[in-house]
Amino acid sequence: MILVPPHVLNEIHALASNGKKIGAIKALRSNALRGKLDLRTAKWAVERLMHEAGIHNLPEALREGEAIASSPIIKSMTCDWGAGPFEVDLESMQMKALMDMQTIGLDSVRQVLHLIEILEAFSEGRKITVEPRPSEDTE
User: Fold this and answer.
1) Range of the domain at 119
2) Mean pLDDT of the 1-10 span
3) N or C: which end of the chain has fewer CB within 10 A?
4) Which pLDDT score, from 0 to 100, does residue 30 have?
5) Residue 8 clears pLDDT 60, i.e. is over it
6) Average pLDDT over residues 114-133
7) How far is CA 105 from CA 86, 88, 110, in A?
8) Residue 25: which H helix or E strand, with range?
9) Residue 132 lies in a domain
10) CA distance 97 to 63
11) What is the percentage of the chain residues whose pLDDT exceeds 70?
């Protein structure tokens, strides 16, 4: 599966639907989240999308091409810093954490900013790892 940002998937669909297959291939090649795709991979993927959308009958593309899908993007979330829940987008969350620094403390602000960085990386399709919890000593 080839992941692209949602707006790119919409662009690829529009280009392919309007008979601009080369434009769709170019958009896919330059915007795949796993890095620049080779021409063959992008061509087969766009042809598969065109077949699945009923634009052209290209059954061999189902065997040869990878599916194109949109990567999930986190737009907003609900937070609670002790004064009740509130919903924020990532940019507002960063600003609110900085403005509430005296209330929530520098360590909490650092954690919120780090979380925002992780959520943005997730939305960009980058790999995110979690460190294992330290094992508890039972002595």
Assistant:
1) 76-123
2) 90
3) C
4) 93
5) yes
6) 84
7) 18, 19, 9
8) helix 21-31
9) no
10) 49
11) 97
User: How far apart are the C-alpha atoms of 125 and 83, rounded to whole Å?
Assistant: 33
Residue 99 lies in a domain: yes
Write the DSSP assignment of 100-128 as a string of letters.
THHHH-HHHHHHHHHHHHHHHHHHTT---
Contact 52, 68 (CB under 8 A): no
Q: Label residue 113 exposed, middle or buried (CB < 10 Å: 0-12, 13-18, 19+).
A: middle
Euclidean distance between CA atoms 20 and 14, whole angstroms: 8
* The pLDDT value given to residue 90: 79
The residue among 61, 62, 67 whose CA lies nearest residue 12 is: 67
Residues 40 and 2 sit within 8 Å (Cβ to Cβ): no
CA dist., res. 31 & res. 55, Å (int): 22
Q: Which of 9-18, 42-51, 52-61, 91-100 has the lowest mean pLDDT?
A: 91-100
Q: Among 84, 88, 134, which residue's Cα sits nearest to residue 115?
A: 88
**Domain match, 34 and 89 both:** no
CA 30 to chain CA mean position, Å: 15
* 51, 83: one domain: no
Q: What is the pLDDT of residues 38-76, one digit of tens each?
A: 999 999 999 999 999 999 898 899 899 999 988 777 778
